[in-house]
TrEMBL record:
<dbReference type="GO" id="GO:0003700">
    <property type="term" value="F:DNA-binding transcription factor activity"/>
</dbReference>
<protein>
    <submittedName>
        <fullName>IclR family transcriptional regulator</fullName>
    </submittedName>
</protein>
<dbReference type="GO" id="GO:0045892">
    <property type="term" value="P:negative regulation of DNA-templated transcription"/>
</dbReference>
<dbReference type="InterPro" id="IPR014757">
    <property type="entry name" value="Tscrpt_reg_IclR_C"/>
</dbReference>
<dbReference type="InterPro" id="IPR005471">
    <property type="entry name" value="Tscrpt_reg_IclR_N"/>
</dbReference>
<dbReference type="GO" id="GO:0003677">
    <property type="term" value="F:DNA binding"/>
</dbReference>
<keyword id="KW-0238">DNA-binding</keyword>
<dbReference type="InterPro" id="IPR050707">
    <property type="entry name" value="HTH_MetabolicPath_Reg"/>
</dbReference>
<keyword id="KW-0805">Transcription regulation</keyword>
<dbReference type="InterPro" id="IPR029016">
    <property type="entry name" value="GAF-like_dom_sf"/>
</dbReference>
<feature type="domain" description="HTH iclR-type">
    <location>
        <begin position="3"/>
        <end position="66"/>
    </location>
</feature>
<dbReference type="InterPro" id="IPR036388">
    <property type="entry name" value="WH-like_DNA-bd_sf"/>
</dbReference>
<keyword id="KW-0804">Transcription</keyword>
<dbReference type="Pfam" id="PF01614">
    <property type="entry name" value="IclR_C"/>
</dbReference>
<dbReference type="InterPro" id="IPR036390">
    <property type="entry name" value="WH_DNA-bd_sf"/>
</dbReference>
<feature type="domain" description="IclR-ED">
    <location>
        <begin position="66"/>
        <end position="244"/>
    </location>
</feature>
<dbReference type="Pfam" id="PF09339">
    <property type="entry name" value="HTH_IclR"/>
</dbReference>
Length: 244
């Protein structure tokens, strides 16, 4: 399988996750931006493997339960998430806010797991998403664990995009923010990427690898509770590290 074909398969899965309905061949091809003939070849292969089925003649195709079953089996065997999930769940229940577990991926943060807040109004990211380092609380927490030269090299690999007036767009401003965050005991994104959304984070080292955990939600709920949430978050990270 070529890299291009593998990418198309992932795009098909993501399209169904977004559309959440059976898709006729022509519509799926249009959404993917590929010729109908190319899309048909992929659909036939996925159908033969048991990942898609035809809901009715000319009604379209939809994923079977095999995709979910495979994903669940993979998730249950994740050695890192299996270790941290109970702590993430405790944090979510204690704060009633969205909890995100992330790691550096080249010059970005990748969200490895997300536990949604039970509130109707909540921060709702998705596992597998990437975020810029400079405008993200997890990114700040992760960068704080690097030597200055390594941190500056990482920041130099992509522009420090300004999302709004709160975004820190210079290395000097970021360094000052990181130092303040170390002293107070938590890293924060106060509406620097998404207006009205706030998150606090802290790094955690597991088996020699650096990760970070964040508590996020609307500014009006997170900002007044930042000290208490930071205390709970640091305690959870310390407990995870002590368990080895």
């Amino acid at each position: 399988m070529s890299v291009k074909t593998a990418l198309r398969v992932i795009e098909i899965i993501e399209t169904y996750a977004r559309e959440r309905r059976p898709l006729p061949l022509s519509e799926l091809a249009r959404l993917l931006g590929v010729p109908v003939s190319s899309c048909l070849a992929l659909i036939r292969t996925l159908s033969q493997l048991g990942y898609l089925y035809e809901t009715g003649r000319r009604q379209g195709y939809y994923p079977t339960g095999r995709l979910l079953a495979m994903a669940q089996r993979i998730a249950r065997a994740d050695p890192v998430l299996d270790r941290v999930y109970p702590s993430l769940l405790e944090l979510r229940d204690a704060t009633q806010e969205t909890i995100v577990f992330g790691k550096l991926s080249e010059a970005r943060v990748v969200y490895l797991d997300v536990l949604d807040s039970p509130h109707t109004i909540r921060y709702a990211p998705v596992a597998g998403e990437f975020r810029e380092l400079h405008a993200n609380s997890l990114g700040k927490a992760l960068m704080s664990m690097l030597e200055p030269d390594a941190r500056h090299a990482l920041l130099g690999r992509s522009p420090l995009t300004r999302h709004n007036e709160r975004t820190l767009t210079t290395v000097q401003a970021l360094e000052a923010d990181l130092e303040l965050s170390r002293q107070r005991g938590w890293f924060m994104n106060l509406g620097e990427s998404i207006p009205d959304v706030c998150a606090i984070s802290w790094p955690v080292t597991l088996s020699g690898e650096i990760y970070a955990i964040s508590v996020g939600g609307p500014i009006y709920r997170i900002e007044p509770q930042q000290q208490e949430y930071a205390r709970i978050l640091r305690a959870a990270c310390t407990a995870l590290e002590q368990r080895g």
